[in-house]
Amino acid sequence: MNLAINSDVNSALKSFNKFKVSIGHSGKVIDAVKFDLIGDEWKVMKVMSEDFSFSFIKQFCLTAYFPSSMHSLKNEYAEILLDIEEQFLFRKFHVSPDVNCNNVYNLHEKNISYCMDICYLNLNFLN
Predict the structure, then answer these.
(1) What is the pLDDT of residues 85-122, one digit of tens each?
(2) What is the domain range of residue 57?
(3) What is the CA radius of gyration of the chain?
(4) Tell me, what CATH number does 47's domain have?
(5) Cα gap 14→5, rounded to integer Å
(6) Is 55 exposed, middle or buried (0-12, 13-18, 19+ CB in 10 A)?
(7) Superkingdom, according to UniProt (predicted)?
(8) For the chain, how many structural domains are there in total?
(9) pLDDT in tens, 29-83
């Protein structure tokens, strides 16, 4: 899965690691990353976990758009986040409902029941 960086600046799709190389940050630690995840964009998190991109991130925040409880992807999304917590020693330090997300959205033909802002800290970087 590819990561869309910014279609206004660069119309090409890149993985997170390729993006880091293109800006001269290969092998460098990133202080913070912000994600907005809707539908298939969750695959970015899974790929970043598989290619160990999270090893080089001190903290990340995401606005997570979760499907309704009847949507089969809800558990998959939760598993992706739990896997990142366990594999890379990330811990949540902020969780709150996204005030910009009304109760139900119909985004990309997916029934979104709620949105959360979640922030994680990588314990590997604590002194």
Answers:
(1) 999 999 999 999 877 665 445 555 556 667 889 999 99
(2) 3-19+29-125
(3) 15
(4) 3.30.110.20
(5) 7
(6) middle
(7) Eukaryota
(8) 1
(9) 999 999 988 767 778 888 899 989 999 999 999 988 776 654 567 778 888 899 9
24 domain-assigned:
no
> Cβ distance 106 to 42 under 8 Å?
no
For residue 84, the surrounding DSSP H or E stretch is helix 73-88
Q: How far apart are alpha carbons 98 and 127 in whole angstroms? A: 31
| HSE-up (13 A, CA, CB side) for residue 48 | 27
| Amino acid identity, position 68 | S
78 falls within a domain = yes
Is residue 34 exposed (0-12), middle (13-18) or buried (19+ Cβ within 10 Å)?
A: exposed
In terms of Cα–Cα distance, which of 62, 37, 39, 124 is closest to 89? 124
The band of 15, judged by pLDDT with boundaries at 50, 70 and 90, is confident
- Side-chain-facing half-sphere of 67: CA atoms under 13 Å: 17
Q: Indicate if the pLDDT at residue 2 is higher than 50.
A: no
